[in-house]
Amino acid sequence: MATGVSISQEQAENEESESAVVTARRQLERAAALLDLDPNVIERLKHPQRVERVSLPLERDDGTVEVFTGYRAQHDSVRGPFKGGLRYHPEVNEEECVGLSMWMTWKCAVMDLPFGGAKGGVVVNPKLLSQNEKERLTRRFAQELRSVIGPMHDIPAPDMGTDAETMGWFMDAYSMQEGETTPGVVTGKPPVIGGSYGREEAPGRSVAIVTREACKYYSQPLDETTIAVQGFGSVGANAARLLDEWGANVVAASDVNGAIYDPDGLDTEAIKSHGEEPAAVTGFSGTEALSNEELLTLDVDVLIPAAVGNVLTESNAGDVSASMIVEGANGPTTSTADSIFERRDVPVIPDILANAGGVTVSYFEWLQDINRRGWSLERVNEELEAEMLSAWTSVINAYESEDEISWRDAAYVVGLKRIVEAHESRGLWP
Ligand code: GLU
């Protein structure tokens, strides 16, 4: 294989550490089997178009130089420029970037956005960098990736460990090198330099919209719905607060230190999100303390895993008591856990639909940048609502048109059909 990414037997069997690319390829194969799709195109989709690996020398504040590794995986661009986040995390690796880039391809296609999929990152613990070090590392990363990105080619965005400030530095470094201000090279920037209102809140907002609609689908009144949210970062906190505002009862939330529980409902506005004050959830008084693992198995109507990947696995899927799962994080459910939920009839509303509000508002941001014309927050939220409802309707139609398919398969069916048709129309060249 061109990129050297392969699924080893050992990895495939070691469910707890299943890499994103293993999960993503299994999901692709499953969905392809449901559809009568050209196997040659499916074969192409198992491989990323390109993976860029760069070395990033960073001068630390004490004058020493440390070299970090960065990646950008570009999976497929048949429907438009590559699109996807950049994460700063010690566990970033090539396989993870490839798997996450595949999910971005499907996510953009489910939402019918004119983008393909990419993902990248730096192998670094951002908490161990000073603000100045993080800025220097980001500027160097932008410079090293300059030949493979661009507003019509590949458009990065925030992900784990990166934020609007990081995107501002990235956009500035790229623009300085190009000699012209190029806001469309990244999304998720601060609004003052071409960012979109509502972008930061968007992934959580889409999780909330999809949760509300899925409750409606299952005739579960939102004001009688109890919800547990794992992770209180941008996705988890925004989803929890909106669902709370819309009448649901958010009874549990967690961060890296553990979880809190109140059967009468948490004051989601008062609990600090990771961005407001890191790791502050367990410091919130007047609630019962739980472990993260206990939160995952709480008897609630909806469980929203919104932290990291691979938290619902073979070892805990049988103990999950929630009646429905809505994936806020990317890849929180391993393939075996997915099969267990299917056997147990627990619907899992997949990440590629539920958290797709982030990339959808990124698309709105990109449109604002290339048109040099900003949108109001009201317009962003109205258009996001419309895009989410339209994608949800397409996924319901796929779900209902096949016998016994999961919501994940239904979302794949919607996205894959669009991607495969685009590949067939364009053909293989040369
Ligand atoms: N990192 C986000 C995701 O996983 C957003 C990507 C983007 O906006 O391009 O969907």
Provide an overview of this structure.
It is a single chain. The protein is an alpha/beta fold. It has two domains: 1-46 and 201-355 and 404-430, Rossmann fold; 48-184, Leucine Dehydrogenase, chain A, domain 1 (Rossmann fold, 3-Layer(aba) Sandwich), CATH 3.40.50.10860. It is 42% helix and 17% strand. The protein has 14 helices and twelve strands. A seven-stranded mixed β-sheet has the order 9-8-7-6-10-11-12. Strand 3, helix 4 and strand 4 (116-123) form a beta-alpha-beta unit. Helix 2 (20-34) crosses helix 14 (407-426), helix 12 (357-371) packs across helix 13 and helix 13 crosses helix 14. The longest helix has 25 residues, at 377-401. The model is unreliable at 1-13 (pLDDT under 50). Glutamic acid (GLU) binds next to strand 3 and helix 12.
